[in-house]
Design a protein that fits this description.
α1 runs antiparallel to α2 (38-54). Residues 1-36 have low confidence and may be disordered. By secondary structure, this protein is α+β, with helices and mostly antiparallel strands. The relative contact order is 0.10. The protein is globular and about 75 Å long. The protein is built from ten helices and 21 strands. Strands 5, 6, 7, 8, 9 and 10 form a six-stranded antiparallel beta sheet that branches.
Length: 394
């Protein structure tokens, strides 16, 4: 159907700059000359034209741009690269800062096809509502969880403090689904915890749940408050730590490796940036606990410790995420997160999709749960082995 003259002018006004931007996206430089794949641009321009002229509903240009940009990034087939609209971008920035409105759930990485609760964060709405490790989220309000990825699920569960969200979870222990209404609160996640290991007053137990922008500072404060020099040894627990900010991992590593390289960042052209210790090495015997969900920044710390030979890794092979994402801020509060480099351990080992083998391999028993930040001497199998290994070094 032909557009009327007035509609045609409006169409050109709305869509012209869209096509121009899309053209730039498909433009490459070859031998110093700019070459545009006009077939692809023409195809996309034709689809935009058809939507404007024939599609039943009016669609804002911003929506089309969001959709086109998301489609381009999704076509990379990289689960770690993503286009984020303004709301998703704001939520990501809050997560990096360790402050956000939500329910307080950490999801498991083990099965990306399911939304499995790794654990509720202590003293958060999720913990107060009775959510348990292993609960499988099947519905978030009216959204079927099987139809969305983890990033979308996290976005749906977050929101302004005081607002409500209803989760339906499948609980294996009772073989049925449970409906859990939750009121969101302001979540400020402390990423580092430090205690004297119960029953072992000469051993410091330090757990890092993720690497936010404040984690290195939190660690420094905890070490000072604990008067770490009075302890004979340290158990550093990085189990279920999914990673986080690169610079934070470097800052934390500096307490556990001597001056020298911590990680090498290598881009697509082979350009290498060396991240080195900041010179805060404690010089106290320590053991690091890792498992199959210790990933990314947690593997930077683990890899540096293993390669530099300053501590002993105990547990099972880590997740194997050895790539780095960069967040680029775009217009109108949006952003794109792209995989831009890989990282290598100090011995220049690429651990992506391979993981890090611990020095001492020990698995949890079937059905056994990790005792993170233990309050009694009833330690899990891995923690008991870590203590044994550490005692042998003292």
């Amino acid at each position: 159907m032909a557009l009327q003259e007035s509609k045609w002018k409006e169409y050109l006004k709305n869509i012209g700059w869209v096509v121009a931007i899309v053209s730039l996206l498909f433009t490459v430089i070859v031998g110093g000359f700019i070459v545009t794949n006009l077939d692809h641009v023409g195809r996309l321009g034709r689809v935009l034209q058809l939507i404007q002229s024939d599609y039943l509903e009016d669609v804002p240009v911003d929506t089309l741009i969001d959709g086109a940009t998301k489609g381009i990034v999704d076509s990379l087939g990289d689960p770690y690269s993503a286009y984020m609209n303004a709301q998703e971008n704001a939520e990501l920035m809050q997560q990096i800062e360790g402050k956000f409105g939500g329910v307080g759930i950490i999801l498991s990485l083990k099965d990306p096809q399911k939304l499995v609760v790794l654990r509720p964060i202590k003293n958060t709405p999720a913990a107060k509502a009775g959510l348990l490790p292993g609960d499988v989220i099947v519905k978030i309000d009216e959204v079927d969880a099987a139809t969305i990825d983890q990033e979308k699920a996290v976005s749906l569960m977050r929101g302004d403090p005081g607002t409500k969200v209803t989760l339906v979870v499948y609980r294996e222990s009772i073989k049925k689904s449970v409906t859990v209404p939750i009121t969101r609160e302001h979540i400020q996640v402390p990423t580092v915890e430090g205690i004297s290991l119960p029953g072992n007053p000469d051993i410091a137990y330090i757990s890092i749940s993720q690497f936010s922008s404040n984690s290195a500072l939190e660690l420094n404060e905890i070490l000072a408050n604990m008067n770490i020099s009075k302890y004979k040894g340290i158990i550093l627990d990085l189990r279920y730590n999914h990673g986080g900010e690169l610079e934070s991992a470097v800052g934390v590593s500096s307490y556990f490796v001597q001056p020298g390289p911590i990680v090498y960042i290598v881009d697509k052209n082979g350009n290498t940036v060396t991240k080195a210790s900041e010179g805060n090495y404690l010089g106290i015997p320590f053991v690091v606990l890792v498992n199959e969900e210790s990933a990314s920044a947690a593997e930077i710390v683990s890899g540096a410790i293993r390669d530099r030979g300053t501590g002993t890794l105990v547990g099972v092979k880590t997740f194997g995420k050895g790539i780095v994402q960069t967040i680029y801020q775009l217009d109108k509060g949006t952003s794109v997160k792209l995989t831009t480099a890989k990282y290598l351990t100090p011995n220049k080992v690429d651990i992506h999709k391979k993981g890090i083998e611990p020095d001492v391999v020990v698995e949890l028993k079937e059905g056994e749960e990790a005792t993170l930040s233990p309050t009694t001497t009833e330690f899990d199998t891995q923690l008991r082995e870590a203590l044994k290994v550490l005692r042998q070094q003292l």
